[in-house]
Amino acid sequence: MEITASYTDLYQLTMAQVYFKTKPNGTAVFDYYFRSNPFEGGYAVFAGLENILEILENFTFSPSDIDYLKHHNFEPSFLDYLKGFQFRGTISSCKEGDVVFPNRPILQVEANIIEAQIVETVLLNLLNFQTLIATKASRIRYSAMDKVLLDMGLRRAHATGGYYATRAAIIGGFNSTSNVKAAKDFKVSCSGTMAHSYIQSYEDELEAFRDFAKIRPKQCVLLVDTYNTLKSGLPNAIIVAKEMEVRGERLMGVRLDSGDLAYLAKKARVMLDDADLKYVKIVASNQLDEFVINSLKEQKAPIDIFGVGTNLVTGKPDASLGGVYKLSELNGEPRIKLSENIIKTTLPFKKQVYRMLDESGMFYGADAIALASEEKPTKMVHPFDQTKSLALDRFQQEPLLEKVMERGQRLFVEKSVAEIAQYSKSRLAQLPTEFKRFQNPHIYKVGLSPKLKEERDKLIDTHTR
Ligand SMILES: Nc1ncnc2c1ncn2[C@@H]1O[C@H](COP(=O)(O)OP(=O)(O)OP(=O)(O)O)[C@@H](O)[C@H]1O
Ligand SMILES: O=P(O)(O)OC[C@H]1O[C@H](OP(=O)(O)OP(=O)(O)O)[C@H](O)[C@@H]1O
Ligand SMILES: O=C(O)c1cccnc1
After folding, report:
1. Boundaries of each Nicotinate phosphoribosyltransferase N-terminal domain copy (predicted)?
2. Residue at which a domain ends, from 282, 297, 313
């Protein structure tokens, strides 16, 4: 599907029409952030930025988009404006692949208010989904430790979402994918095994294995659970592996796809080792996720490669990341959205986010949000609890938001998915394990500079008086 500027919600365009009449030259700042970590975890992995920059560089309405909008009561002068529409704004963002936390800007858009409003939907659509899936992938990587992870999810993904799910999975730490189009476009490793239908298409499992091994001897992985894993699949795979040895070839692996994966993997390892096939790897699949993989590791299942589909690409059980895009400044003036739920009150003005690092370069566990116009803060305060604050002078502070697009043009050459994945790995390594554990992870502190808090509280006063 080609993404043009009609990839938006109608209300963005109806608001834009009113801005066009009332404040065509307004300059807005919007913040992208989410309010709670996915999967009740301790962090998220930010993904989707490069796709957004590429889309926004060419975000225009096609002639058929304009024809379509004629049926929605848009006046001719506004439709003429849309014909020439281009995103010419500035974007500051965290690096793609970084670990990010709730209630602090991850990305800021500064643009003409019409442009900033129209890009909201596509931006949320891509960043929310990929951030969710990259986070899930990083959790699966955490549980799998140094084992190989293969994405098998395309068939179970929400339609074309599987394309971006694969990209996010690689950023979060997967090694390879079965998804040919995504692997081709994102230049990542593509691999796979075989389906039950292939074995079923033969009268005899052994013949099925033999043909496959003869025709595709390289990286050949035989699926051994169609009839009986231990009595038929493995003995047949061992026969074929020995025949391959005679031809100077090596069977790469066997795949277990049902039953008790720990029990079967242990039995399979013994059978393979007894046949002098120590090099044959064991692949496991079947509704895996970070918790099942953790359990398999605890059971010391000798599995070398995990194939993960549904739970990865659908971001189960969360389904969605609730990232939002909120107006924080208009024409240099602060803007706020109040809420009964104090945590939902927005932060005014253009901002910078600083990460605290300890002497060893590890993340201390605190990000401070300050006004963009301020120097690095020396203290951060809790957003709502007056009794809590943290002195920041002892930390090395890293500013996280950097300008990545100016006047609609990206400022850096596009990073490859492999580079982003590498960066993500290095950032996750800087995050202490207590933030990565699955149960009751340590809470990462996000605080405000005293000046930002003062400005926010002044605005709250103004609007509640
Ligand atoms: N040793 C194990 N420890 C923990 N979980 C496991 C173990 N072995 C398998 N599982 C998981 O248990 C679940 C079993 O699901 P299910 O009952 O659908 O599988 P199955 O009946 O073996 O397979 P199928 O229905 O495909 O024939 C899967 O999520 C699987 O990954
Ligand atoms: O369980 P997931 O994590 O979603 O992983 C993908 C699943 O998709 C395939 O099954 P499917 O029944 O679709 O096809 P098959 O006949 O090749 O097993 C594969 O065998 C895995 O079991
Ligand atoms: O290559 C595989 O084994 C594979 C690919 C997609 C889905 N299930 C399995």
Report:
1. 8-128
2. 313
Distance 207 CA to ligand 3 centre (A): 21
* Residue 446 clears pLDDT 80, i.e. is over it: yes
Q: Are 258 and 361 in the same domain? A: no
Atom of ligand 2 nearest to the CA of 194: 17
DSSP E strands, 257-360? 281-284, 305-308, 324-330, 333-334, 351-357
* Residue 5 domain-assigned (yes or no): no
User: Mean pLDDT throughout 419-443?
Assistant: 98
Q: Which residue in this structure is represented by tokens 């394309």?
A: 163
**CB of 307 within 8 A of CB of 175?**
no
- Judge if 83 and 220 occupy the same domain: no
Computed over every residue of the chain, the mean pLDDT equals: 97
| Beta strand 379-381 pairing with 305-308 | unpaired
Percentage above 70 pLDDT, the chain: 100
Ligand 1 mutation target, pool 226, 261, 288, 312, most atoms within 8 A of CB: 261
Other C-beta atoms closer than 10 Å to the C-beta of 300 total 10
Ligand 1 binding pocket includes 409 (Cβ within 6 Å): no
In single-letter form, the type of residue at position 31 comes to D
Same domain assignment for residues 343 and 456:
yes
Partnered with residue 379 across adjacent β-strands are: 391
- CA nearest ligand 3 atom 9, residue: 152
**How many whole angstroms separate alpha carbon 147 and alpha carbon 303?**
8
- Residue 254 to residue 5: CA distance in whole angstroms: 47
**b/e per residue 128-158 (b: at least 16 CB within 10 A):** bbbbbbbbbbbbbbbbbeebbbbbbbbebbe
Tokens 């005293």, located at residue? 450
Global pTM exceeds 0.95: yes
192 within ligand 3 shell (Cβ under 6 A):
yes
Check whether residue 186 and residue 124 sit in a common domain: no
Ligand 2: residue whose CA is nearest its atom 22: 286
User: Looking at ligand 3, which atom is closest to the CA of residue 255?
Assistant: 3
Contacts of 289 (CB under 8 A, 6+ apart): 140, 308, 311, 312, 316
> Considering the domain boundaries, does residue 3 fall inside one?
no
The reported pLDDT for the residue numbered 465 is 83
Same structural domain for residues 426 and 323? yes
Amino acid at the residue 109: V
Query: What CA–CA distance (Å, rounded) separates 175 from 190?
Result: 9
Q: Which helix (H) or strand (E) holds 421?
A: helix 417-430
